[in-house]
Amino acid sequence: MRFKPPKTKHGRRTISLPATIVAVLREHRRKLLEQRLALGLGRPEEAALLFPLNPEGDPIPPNRLTRRWQDACKSLGLPRVSFHALRHTHASALIAAGVDVVAISRRLGHANPTVTLRIYAHLFTRDDSKVVAAIEKALAPRDVR
What angle in degrees, to the nearest 10, is found between the helix axes of 85-96 and 101-108? Predict the structure, then answer.
């Protein structure tokens, strides 16, 4: 297994995370550091994986991650879906929350919003009441004193 750069420049990006998730990830990293120190391995490199296979920091083989994901779904009584489906679930939740397509496109690493619309167009609401409200507001008489 080897790491390679993303296929496009849009594949390398910074995304924002909620503070609650950042706190959980920091706690996880702290536990990893404690484990490494207890084993006499010292501090990992700055670019070390946050979810390694073992204390030495080896990457989890994709087939093992897939098996673990399938086992977790089964034990929780969830439908059998691929790990990659989480990406689509994330995009669907953002669309349902009314996040604009440009922001979603950037977060997913799509080259442009057209790609996002092509994949997720069926999820965007056909209700244009927000459009009507925006036009109504723009046309409303203004108090010019």
Answer: 160
Residue pair 10/110 in contact (Cβ under 8 Å)? The answer is: yes
Q: What is the DSSP letter of 112?
A: S
Tokens found for residue 51? 């979810």
Mapped to the 3 state alphabet, what secondary structure does 126-141 carry? CCCHHHHHHHHHHHCC
Position 124 in a domain: yes
**Predicted pLDDT at 103:** 95
Question: How many Å apart are CA 25 and CA 103, to the nearest integer?
Answer: 24
Mean of per-residue pLDDT scores for the chain: 91
How would residue 46 be classed by pLDDT, with cut points 50, 70 and 90? confident
Q: Which amino acid is at 80?
A: R
* Cα separation, 54 vs 44, whole angstroms: 12
134 domain-assigned: yes
Q: Which domain holds residue 106?
A: 82-145
pTM over 0.85: no
C-beta of residue 6 within 8 angstroms of C-beta of residue 12: yes
Q: Is 141 a domain residue?
A: yes
